[in-house]
């Protein structure tokens, strides 16, 4: 990008804000237009299913800060981009407006998935994505004393159930999996079942909704396990779909998010980078399969990286190879995850509350049940064992004229050379034995139960962490300098 | 030379009502934050050099609870 260029950022969530901030940090002095379909400036979306729906934070308090004297961005809030034209380099807005760009950062995130059969026209059947969604759920809760119901046993479903119990509302969590959060490993999954029981949240696992009954004041649900629930509000939290409709017809691959190269450039466009949940890129730290990562910290990191790469240009850009990190709080338990547990073939207990995820004998992910101090060590350990590959920039293709002519070699001469090699030279080295030895050495590196080689410090079993249900030590202590 | 109050410059604080001690800040800014073995978070309130300021900004950006508050002249 050159001086005076215009960079358009589509999506005013955390990724859009962090991309704009990074552009200014890198001294980009052109115009930045930040377009968002919500009428609000970027805010901390993870609070929608927690503090906002509980009413412990006000919408005006959850805005995201930037750390610059002046962001100098043209805001276009409450505007939804309708179409992208990558040849003309234009985004279209409602009312026939078109906005040209020199560089585009797409960060439109995901939208909650629709549950077929759910009567979304009923005002008590809601999703949780925006501040307004959380306010609508609160209005439903205030209008009726009936229990809340959440469908979906992922992070948002579990967080919402915990939030409801926290404000003293009865709640039932419906999921079709055998246990909530089963992809985080058995330790986390059994832990969360226990927590829900202890806090008297109802679980209806391995079940679905058979019939919906909308009445004037409530929603009735008839489940496949023959339970009948009467709810004040039903929240749909069965995952999400990328918001990429506006790129239809642009020539970009939008089958599942936007297909990118390892540097977050959209395939087929050298001036479009993708950030946040919609980027489907190969994380070379793991392998070369393009995947999406729907985690909040990844939105921060990918947005900054995408902004850097857009300024550098595709040829000198650097691959994005993060170690994905995620967190959640369920009741008073902190849940953390890093790496790519979803790729694992096997799990292993690394320490009390710490689960390792293993693929091909390599540790590729760690999840943690309320052990943040130990998790910190394990994240560094995972980073050490699974380092980001060294990036060697692709060499400039040499001009054809400079290619030296390959001298022709007489095949007979080569055969004569080969015959000169003594026979024992070949047999002195047992390749198979070497490989066996190498593999067994490598296999010893697999985390099994103990870690003799890289013994980690014992996890801190503080009085706080050791007692289930005890209040978290939420006191941070400033140190003077 | 801009006018500065004695003891000015960037400072950080942590909102104890929000902080849930995930330790993400200690990962982003190991020179500023420390999550101790006792599970307590300790941190330096004054940021002295460019590196710690940049680290602290990254910690504030990545904080899951958005509990890190930065004040003062962030340009160092």
Automatic annotation (TrEMBL), chain B:
Q: Which UniProt keywords apply?
A: Electron transport, Iron, Iron-sulfur, Metal-binding, Transport
- What is a GO molecular function of this protein? iron-sulfur cluster binding
Q: Which InterPro entries match?
A: 3Fe4S_ferredoxin
Question: Has keyword Iron-sulfur?
Answer: yes
Chain's role: Ferredoxins are iron-sulfur proteins that transfer electrons in a wide variety of metabolic reactions.
User: What is the protein's given name?
Assistant: Ferredoxin
